[in-house]
Structure to design on (306 residues):
């Protein structure tokens, strides 16, 4: 089994496109370089922010191969999203990810069908039994309608490769409940940008972040400051960050965060249909939030040496 710490910052990376609707690998590399330079601890590709709903299986395959090759020899694990309708297809994707060199998978409950608790756990167990890859369970009942409960995690205890959870229930008590019941058996990564600092303060081991796609240094710095117990400095970054972080909890989070990455010179506004680029008053409103934050950027300490 591959080794992932599940500690630190794991950006849910954007999938940049060219004007011709192809994956823009040179631009992706610019963003990836910014993430690595900032000090992220791993990357997640093909998730919601990566426009998983519209990239093809072949594109996802080539994207994974590109990331594995690019990060070969570096200590930055590549995690790929597995979000499928059927157990059979999810297992096939997990096995293919393993074959292509992925370091781990982020596993969603079955999509489209609102499975009950037993069905979801059976699905997770089947995928976990089929692959040696470490697994990050995505617990997001707000967007996907299925909550992975403490009892369900208890059933997953025998599966050593089920190692972590992207905690997006938006119920901060769930972090404490998970820690009280399981200790460090399941690493907890906060998955909602607008409660990221609270998640870290309550004991989450890191973050699966969204606005990190545009502002990697600020994201990593905030995390490092919390771990160094320099809370006032972490709060200062968080307060500056909040108008931007709120872009992560909107249905158009892809367009909003791509606009932010564009403003930072590490992304573009191109999205894949049926998504459309922002325009008119909406684009101006979001761009003002982004530009105001950039104009009043908070000073960062030498966070890499804390």
């Amino acid at each position: 089994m591959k080794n992932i710490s599940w500690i630190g910052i794991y950006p849910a990376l954007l999938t940049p496109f060219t004007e011709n609707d192809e994956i823009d690998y040179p631009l992706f590399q610019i963003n990836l370089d910014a993430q690595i330079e900032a000090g992220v601890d791993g990357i997640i590709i093909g998730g919601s922010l990566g426009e998983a709903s519209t990239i093809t299986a072949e594109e996802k395959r080539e994207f994974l191969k590109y990331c594995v090759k690019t990060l070969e020899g570096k200590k930055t694990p590549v995690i790929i999203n597995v979000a499928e309708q059927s157990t059979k297809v999810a297992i096939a994707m997990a096995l293919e990810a393993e074959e292509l060199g992925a370091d781990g998978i982020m596993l969603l409950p079955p999509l489209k069908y609102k499975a009950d608790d037993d069905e979801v756990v059976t699905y997770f167990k089947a995928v976990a039994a089929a692959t040696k890859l470490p697994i990050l369970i995505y617990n997001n009942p707000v967007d996907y309608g299925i909550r992975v409960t403490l009892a369900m995690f208890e059933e997953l205890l025998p599966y050593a490769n089920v190692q972590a959870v992207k905690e997006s229930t938006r119920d901060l008590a769930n972090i404490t409940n998970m820690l009280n019941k399981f200790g460090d058996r399941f690493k907890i990564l906060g998955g909602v940008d607008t409660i990221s600092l609270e998640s870290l303060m309550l004991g989450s081991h890191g973050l699966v972040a969204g606005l990190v796609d545009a502002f990697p240094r600020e994201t990593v710095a905030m995390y490092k400051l919390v771990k160094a117990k320099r809370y006032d400095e972490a709060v200062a970054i968080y307060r500056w960050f909040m108008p931007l972080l709120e872009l992560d909890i909107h249905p158009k989070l892809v367009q909003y965060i791509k606009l932010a990455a564009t403003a930072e010179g590490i992304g573009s506004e191109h999205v894949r249909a049926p998504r459309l680029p922002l325009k008119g008053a909406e684009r101006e409103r979001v761009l003002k939030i982004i530009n105001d934050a950039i104009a009043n950027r908070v000073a960062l300490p030498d966070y890499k040496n804390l």
Remarks:
- The chain has a mean pLDDT of 97.
- The CA atoms of residues 235 and 254 lie 26 Å apart.
